[in-house]
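Problem 12. The chain below contains 94 residues. Write out its predicted structure in token notation.
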Amino acid sequence: MPLQECPSCAQTTQSGNGEDQTLTNVANGCRCRIRRHRAHGAIRQRLLDLGFVPNAEIEMVRCATLGDPLEMRVGDYYVTLRKREADLIDVRAA
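Solution.
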């Protein structure tokens, strides 16, 4: 399946200075790198255990019909996160 180009990726490519955004704002098919996350406690540990570590490359695969949850690819496996968890992750277009 061909990747869709999202407006934020195109803007980043053209300007050359990608800005941080939350993971929920990444369009389907776009790739990004994790800058940091703002989670604490058990949620932070869960995200780290799932591979959401700084500088990891993430590909947004799709979101459910009602916009929650989100499916993404981390490395060579797929992970589904709730939107409220993805909102805690800051990313930059890869």
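Discussion. DSSP finds three helices and six strands in the chain. Students who got a different answer should revisit the alignment rule from Section 12.3.
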